Amino acid sequence: MKTPQFWKSNNAFGFLLSPFGALYGALTALRLKLKKGYQADVPVICVGNITAGGVGKTPISMALGELLKKQGKNPFFISRGYGGVLSGVLVDNKKHSPREVGDEPLILSHVAPTVVCHDRAKAAKIAIQNGADILIMDDGFQNPGLKKDVSFLVFNGELGIGNGKIIPAGPLRESLKSGLKRADAVIFIGEDKTKLLEKIDKPVLKANIVEQKPDYQGSVVAFAGIGYPQKFYNSLLKCGLTIENAYDFEDHHFYTKDELKHILKKAKKKNLPVYTTSKDYVKIPKNMQHDFNVLHIKAEFEDQKALLKFLRF
């Protein structure tokens, strides 16, 4: 889904939908309370959030996976595989497609082995059977199926928590208070533009998204199917590029050839390159990928030693 504009600030729509948000929050709390999670034989780290997508969980998960590998660990990612049709499989990025396993698992699998399964407990068992000695849950903070040894909540300083209301009145999956209660620490990305840190009473680990600046400098055509496309466009601007045209799609959108040809046609009229995200690039047919460019990004932790203190298993 595309993120509704009214989620960003207090307004009449959010007020009218608040009762439904309260019900959504209550059902989430009830589900977490009633279901007893499976205890895995290896440590489980959850990289989650309490907002509906787009805060930077996947880059954080990837950076965490790289850090653990440097510590001599053999981490596995476990993911629901949103948008994919397969479940209970170890991702093979040379064989599986985004429609089979989802877009984010394909990206994660380039860092460490990744298991896709709707049942997180089953995913943990598959990972351990294949040699995992530590598990990283990309998302799943509100999923009670697997016990977590450490839970990190990821927030984006530019986005904050919007109007602070629960879905569908706002972007929250649960209240800030309830989410922080179950978190061990917060991973905060970028500058705190909404003063959210004033409301956080947990240890805060800072991180930043770093862009790989393209050799090309000039005007571009851009498109993105992520929770907050403007984040991607801001990254392009940060790299010194100018956006001539931008096309927004729903999060996890699967592109048709006609949609991609339309974007390319618009770009070729002005002889401009087309840029997109890694998450969107994997969903472009391989015989068309050469026509598109990716803005590569990665997350960097400001204090790795502080982070590792939470991971002494």
Explain what you see.
This protein has 313 residues and is an alpha/beta fold. The chain has helices at residues 12-34, 57-70, 98-101, 103-108, 120-129, 176-182, 229-238, 257-269, 278-281, 304-308, and strands at residues 44-48, 75-79, 89-90, 114-116, 134-138, 150-156, 185-189, 204-211, 219-224, 242-248, 274-276, 293-294, 297-301. It has a 9-stranded mixed β-sheet, sandwiched between helices. A 4-stranded parallel β-sheet has the order 10-9-11-12, sandwiched between helices. The chain is globular.
Helix content: 25-40%
Main β-sheet: number of strands, strand sense, barrel status?
9 strands, mixed
CATH architecture field of the largest domain: 3-Layer(aba) Sandwich
Give Rg in angstroms: 19 Å
Please name the fourth-level CATH homologous superfamily of the largest domain.
P-loop containing nucleotide triphosphate hydrolases
> How many H/I helices?
10
Pick out the low-confidence regions. Answer: none
Q: Can you tell me the CATH topology of the largest domain?
A: Rossmann fold
Specify the oligomeric state: single chain
Number of strands: 13
Beta-strand percent range: 15-25%
- End-to-end CA span: 38 Å
Strand order of the largest sheet: 3-4-2-5-1-6-7-8-13
**Main CATH class of the largest domain:** Alpha Beta
> What series of H and E elements makes up the topology?
HEHEEHHEHEEHEEEHEHEHEEH
Summarize the structure.
The protein contains 10 helices and 13 strands.
Describe the structure using short key phrases:
single chain; 313 residues; alpha/beta; Rossmann fold; 2 domains; nine-stranded mixed beta sheet; four-stranded parallel beta sheet; 10 helices; globular
